[in-house]
Amino acid sequence: IYVLSDFLRGQHLFSHLFSSRVSALSFRSTPLRFYLFLVKAELIGWQHIDFGFEWRCTSISHFGMAIERILKDDASEEKGERARMASFVGAMAIADLVKTTLGPKGMDKILQSTGRGQTVTVTNDGATILKSLHIDNPAAKVLVDISKVQDDEVGDGTTSVVVLAGELLREAEKLVASKIHPMTIIAGLLRAFQLCIQVLSLHHYQIAEKFKTDLMKIAKTTLSSKILSQDKEHFAKLAVDAVLRLKGSTNLESIQIIKKPGGSLKDSFLDEGFILDKKIGIGQPKRIENANILVANTAMDTDKVKIYGARVRVDSMAKVADIEAAEKQKMREKVDKILAHGINCFVNRQLIYNFPEELFANAGVLAIEHADFDGIERLALVTGGEIASTFDNPESVKLGHCKLIEEIMIGEDKLIKFSGVEMGQACTVVLRGASHHVLDEAERSLHDALCVLSQTVNDSRVLFGGGWPEMVMAKAVDELARTTPGKRSHAIEAFSRALVAIPTTIADNAGLDSAELVARLRAEHNKEDSNAGIDVISGSVGNMSELGISEAFKVKQAVLLSATEAAEMILRVDEIITCAPRRREDRM
């Protein structure tokens, strides 16, 4: 950039510029009678121009190259408006993807993998859909993460959190387009969020008197948007009974879910104790009372020479027989060490070969092989034992105990049931269904209900459902926007519009007239102590208290918190830098 004084004016200047191989790119006059030239010089160093003085000419393009060389060749960066637009578009696309699965009439998605076997998943669970996607957009990945956190923390609301975050960003995009600074928008959103939490805290109710009845309502509301909605009464009872056995614990490890194809979903049942999906071996006792159980993870196949590539040369078959006898003796000693623990049931993570199985059968010990790792960890937990791998010190090994081990039949399959286990709250839910796809979705639905119920037992605050909390919060946020001076009021108003998008989406997904319903709902909420929400079954505005539609306070609180924080994080972005892929070095 050169600023040249008035005396350099005229054609003489241009002839000298061109003759010295410097091109004039633009010429602008200013009120101060200074002239600005953007020039691109092909030569670097001291450039002599015939004005009787010397001046330094540095290539602007060289500066650009120097800046670009900070990043590697394949790296890229997007700045300012483009970066913000890429973030908004990615986040809104993800929200629109899962929006149709929201509510009792939400639709399912089929997820098909391209790997070997091409597994198919049919689901309407937001977290399951999003974690199955391979996403390139960084802002979209933020929404996938908040959905996962919501699933881990409270189990339900995985779709709501993504839809709310997407709507907040949709509203924020309009404000940014009207030249409101992102930090002003963030300040407004945070103020509205704080008010929403205060409003929810004032409008919740405790479930103390009819504890089990209210838990049933929450379970039915959670299951109404899942595949189990047709039999929600049956499964709500299963979930409530299982959670009440936990006696206030949120550790769902002691509730096992077994899936067995066949029958209908209504044939599913809850069984006390622990069921292991294994068969009892041949010639072993089928029923054991007052069992002492050793849970182990050890090699019970014929011990091999454990040196890679080892060979044994012998000069007769008798020597081969000696090696086999030595291996058998080694295994017999190992079995004797295990039996020295005074057990009558041995459960192993790994295979048990025929010879040790025969030794266990002769000793009257039930030996169960190849129990999956999840199975033996849960078995050790519920029977009060520990997983052992060495058996030299019987006094240091903690055995598990239960009153009865027996073989049971479910459908066509034989399983082993452990009754009267040391951890009294342990139970097993056996799911029956038409196919593996139905069972997988039923398990996800039941897991969501169990998570919500276990959280509600700890934090007994409850809200009405059906879009009631969103309308209560939107009303309070609108009032705040009217009393807030400055541009922040626009952001607070935008938060209110984003909240109303939840009941709007619920109505749209049910094929109802959302504009009509939301307008009637807003009118109802202007009355004192209204319990109105959207009743998608009758297609009208209904009383949530009479309909028994309730949801956990903790779920709604987590949805608000995660969605607001995600929207704030994405709004703060003004540059996206994509790193160059790492190249493999050529190895000689």
TrEMBL record:
GO molecular function, one term: ATP-dependent protein folding chaperone
GO cellular component: chaperonin-containing T-complex
UniProt keyword annotations, A-Z: ATP-binding, Chaperone, Cytoplasm, Nucleotide-binding
Subcellular location: Cytoplasm
Primary site of residence: cytoplasm
Origin: domain of life: Eukaryota
Gene3D superfamilies in the record: GroEL, GroEL-like equatorial domain, TCP-1-like chaperonin intermediate domain
PROSITE patterns: TCP1_1, TCP1_2, TCP1_3
Keyword Chaperone: yes
Pfam family, one: Cpn60_TCP1
Family stated for the protein in its record: Belongs to the TCP-1 chaperonin family.
Name of the protein this chain belongs to: CCT-beta
Organism: Linum tenue
